[in-house]
Every structure is written in C-alpha cells, then in structure tokens.
C-alpha cells in the first residue's frame, strides 16, 4: 500500500502533537508535584497557586513556553518557602529549646572534660606518689637487708675473733699449765735431790758416829783397865 505525501505529513504532525502533548503533560505533572511540596510549607500559598495553575496552565493546548514559565515560578516559590521555613524554624520555641539543650550539652561536655582532666591529673599524681612510695620502700628494704648482712658479717668476724682469742687464751692457759707442771716437777726433783742429799748426809753422819763408837769403846776399856790397876795398887 502506497502512502501519499499528505498521509505522511499528517502522521508526522500527529506524532509531533503527541510528543508535545506528552511533554506538556510531563510539565503539568511536575507542576502538580511542586504544588504538593509547597502545600507542606504554606497551604494558603498552595491554594492560590493551584487555582492559577488550574485556570491558566492545566490545559492540553497550553503553549510550552507558558507552562515552562509557570513551572519556573513554582520552583522559585518552593525555594523561597524552604528558606523562610528554615529561618522561621530557627525561631520556633522547639528549636530554641533544642539550641539551649545543645548549649547545655556542650557546657556539660566541657565540665565533664575538665573533671576528667582533673581526675586524670589527680590519678597521675596518686600513681606517681604510690610509685615513689614503693621505690622508697624497696630502697629501704634493700638498705635494711644490706645493713643486716653487714651486721651478720661483723658478728661472724667478731665471733671468729672471739673464738681466736679464746683459742689463744686456751693455748696460753695450756702453756701455763705445762710451765706450772714443769716448775712443780723441777721443785719435786729439787726436793727429791735435797732429800737424797739429807739422806746421804745422815748416812755419812751415821758412819762417822759408827767410827767414833769403837774409839769410845777403846777409851772405856782403857778406863776400866786403869781402874783395875788402881784397885790392885791400893791393896
């Protein structure tokens, strides 16, 4: 089937019309969407703009330039409302209370940080003091132990000296005993020698007396003989 030029042009126009209609419809939908967003910020403004949209722009044959211009207007309106909402929101009691709470939280945070710093510093000082005490106690313990060892060593030396002195004294006493014994032995020997001498002298004396005794006997005999002679002469 052959298509005439008129049919071709007609179809092309219909496609263009549909395409344009579709674009216009898309912009109308976009405008409706922005109007809904505006409603959340300001309902009165939304109603006013919606009425304008329905009266002037919500049409099938609306020019693209016009719908685009209105769409741009709605975008700017929404932006302004958002900015106003942001400023007004900051002035609301809820936001003010929130800001006050934020300030309080910040102050509390600063106070907590200060307290933490103080606690940390105090703990650090306490730990340092504790470490110093432990080190001092350890030094004292070491010094005490060293002093005890030195004292024990001195005692050992003193004991050894005492033992040596005692040993020397014992040796001296033993020597004295030996000397004494020797002296006693000498004296005993001397006594014995003296006694022997005395005995020898007595023996000699006895012998001398014994020798003298016969002489006495002789003298006595002579005396007796004289007496006899005398007697005879007197007769």
UniProtKB/TrEMBL annotation:
Bias (Basic residues) ranges: 146-162, 173-235
Annotated segments matching region Disordered: 139-235
Coiled coil regions in record: 10-44
UniProt entry keywords in alphabetical sequence: Coiled coil
Protein name (record): Uncharacterized protein
Organism expressing this protein natively: Halobacteriovorax marinus (strain ATCC BAA-682 / DSM 15412 / SJ)
